[in-house]
Amino acid sequence: MIINQKIEHFNSPLYLESGRILESYDVAYESYGELNKERTNTVVVFHTLTGSQHAAGRYENDNKTGWWDILIGDGKVIDTRKYFVICVNILGGCNGTTGPMSTNPSTNEPYRLKFPVITISDMVRAQQNLFAKLGIKKAHAIIGGSLGAMQALCCSIEYPDFTSRAILLAGTYATSPWAISFNKIAMDGVLNDPRFKNGQYEKGDFEEEGLLGLALGRMAGHISFLSPYSMRRKFERNYVETDGLYELFGRFQVERYMEYNGYNFSKRFDPLSYLYIIKAMNIFDATRNYESLSDSLSFIKAKLYLIGFKNDLLMLPEELESIKDTIEALGRGDKVEYRCIDSDYGHDAFLVEYDKFDTYVKNALEEEF
After folding, report:
1. Helix (H) or strand (E) segment spanning residue 127
2. Which of 219, 197, 198 minimizes the C-alpha distance to 263?
3. pTM of the prediction?
4. What amino acid positions are annotated as catalytic residues?
5. pLDDT digits (tens, 9 = 90+) for 25-37
6. Going from the N-terminus, what domains does the chain have, and what CATH number goes with each?
7. How many other CB atoms sit within 10 Å of the CB of residue 17?
């Protein structure tokens, strides 16, 4: 499978939901497979909070594959011999698409905290501009988990003619107070770290040591991605073999795991991007610009395939089920399917336990209308 990496530049302004304007911007993306002559075989994959456009395959001299490589590729569930698969780095990100550390053309300096607050709608609008530039008027399907599911739902509501099927995994129609509280820890951790310098740090400042505040916030977030059951199964009460039980800072295996994930993440992900993206997630509410959830979902023309996970504590499966119930109440029961996967892994099950839901994704992609 060939990985195509590109960055498209837009000189036309992007009008944001806040009323602010980006006079110009870049959108980075990866694609796999070939676009057919009719340009109708596109599958759009929306990435997660800490993901990127690198959804599948392996770069040369890199032993790490894309974040959903298990599902995307030649002969896999999202078959790149059949579909043209595209994943776009979100607006506000730090992997090529314009974000807070991008250069502000009016000052030739990074935007930093002068970057405008963005929303999921803004992310989707930038992506739609890219698809239009590529000549993709309608996708075969759109799919995403967590933040990706938010984008997929937003796209289905605001661009109802863009696709005939949308697959949402571990998603919600509005970010809950529970999720916002975890994001609060991350935001305060970053803002109160002296090395953050109120956003006046330089690119590369954290590549070697990371940023402590972001690492701590990521640890808190990572707890919400798992569950008590998966943690018990993975770690039990095992202690780090080289640490003494009666050393004050001796660690349990779960503590070492949290350190590893937190500190490594803070070396590779830009803290300002993290702040802007979690703000966009906090704002997300499919009812916010509508009279009700029923009102917003009434705009959807695509069939929704909703996949929740039992023991997902971050985005409860019943939040997806309420979308199903609302669409059925609109008299459109044929336009929605809901599955609750029996899983005790937690929120990140959609990135790990693929064998429990891959058949549903395959059936959704292949269903004929």
Report:
1. helix 120-133
2. 219
3. 0.96
4. 146, 312, 347
5. 999 999 999 999 9
6. 4-176+285-366 (3.40.50.1820), 179-280 (1.10.1740.110)
7. 17
